[in-house]
Design a protein that fits this description.
The chain has no helices and seven strands. It is mainly beta and about 120 residues long.
């Protein structure tokens, strides 16, 4: 807690984006969709829940305050037990691509962002 303020530096109003991931291990933020604000990509490595899958999902804020979020896309559906993930424009086309590594799946995968960028 920030000693200068009784409530601390961070808001005490947490926003849960997804509570169905097991062993969430990778987070990357960036404007993947060209919306002018950041989205969140999350990867996890433990097969649990109803679908018993691992993978990577992309989440987008539903309002400008960021108090509500929704799942926008499944980037990887059960081929990446994600241990770590980074974002960079790997192909020089102006948008952020993802590269992820999976310990249990023993793979490194590049996910090319083919989104048609919106306003910058």
């Amino acid at each position: 807690i920030n000693p200068e303020a009784k409530s601390g530096l961070w808001s005490q109003n947490r926003v849960v984006i997804d509570n169905g991931l097991s062993q969430g291990h990778a987070l990357v933020t960036g404007d993947f969709l060209g919306l002018g604000y950041d989205q969140v990509a999350a990867g996890w490595r433990q097969k649990t829940g109803e679908d018993k899958k691992v993978g990577i999902r992309l989440y987008v804020a539903s309002n400008k305050e960021g108090s509500e979020w929704k799942q926008h896309a499944v980037i990887d559906d059960n081929t990446m037990a994600c241990e770590d993930m980074k974002a960079a424009d790997l192909d020089g086309d102006g948008d952020l691509d993802l590269v992820a590594a999976g310990r249990a799946t023993k793979n490194v995968v590049i996910y090319w962002n083919k989104t048609i960028a919106g306003p910058k």
